[in-house]
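User: Can you predict the 3D structure for this chain?
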Amino acid sequence: MENVEGIQKNKDGVLKVFPAMTLDELYTHGDCPAVIKEAIGFSAVWQVRNETSVEKAVSAPSLMPELTIALLATEAQVLLEDGATVPMAEVVKRSGKRAKMAALLLSDGVCAATARLGVSPTSDPIVAVAASIDVKNGVINDVRVALTGVWSGRKWLAESVQSFKGGEAGKLDVAQVAAAVEKEVKPKGDHLGSVEYRRAMAGVLTRQALEACMKGVK
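Assistant: Here is the predicted structure, written as structure tokens:
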């Protein structure tokens, strides 16, 4: 296992990121997955990236929601000091005390992409989406869509997309997946966007992210 600048990389390409590493160190690391790098760039300016550890960002999902949805879409996992490995999807649901984080495990093995809508390119998103598609032998092994700006509480992942698993990748109707997500989300309106607007944008951005994913599917 290779150990370079605070990151261990195993032969399968999984990155073991130590919790004390700053987001900027991860952002500038050559092995940082593209979608994670993009999410960190949108989530925080240089100063904040240097002041925020990986552990802090992972432990407080709402702190940097675009990073959180990117971690969820790419199936990141958290290695705890007690030896347990917990999917990010479980981390965001948990509350209260738990074993301390030993490492963040990142994989770059799925086709993933993001799409966002904000008042400006550097503003917090009104709605943002991170999606991934894992294809094996032409069959959809998994499809994940994580969103921010369209849920309340600890909800991040769209459940409706699971019905598309097992289908032929070449026949995936991205518009149909986006429509399912649009129907599922439960946004709250505010001065940045009404319920109807946020719901519609969830569909539009899901479609954009999935179309970008499909370009990388082999």
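Strands lie at 2-4, 7-9, 15-17, 77-80, 85-87, 101-106, 111-118, 125-136, 139-148. Residues 111-215 form a domain with the Enolase-like; domain 1 fold (CATH 3.30.390.50).
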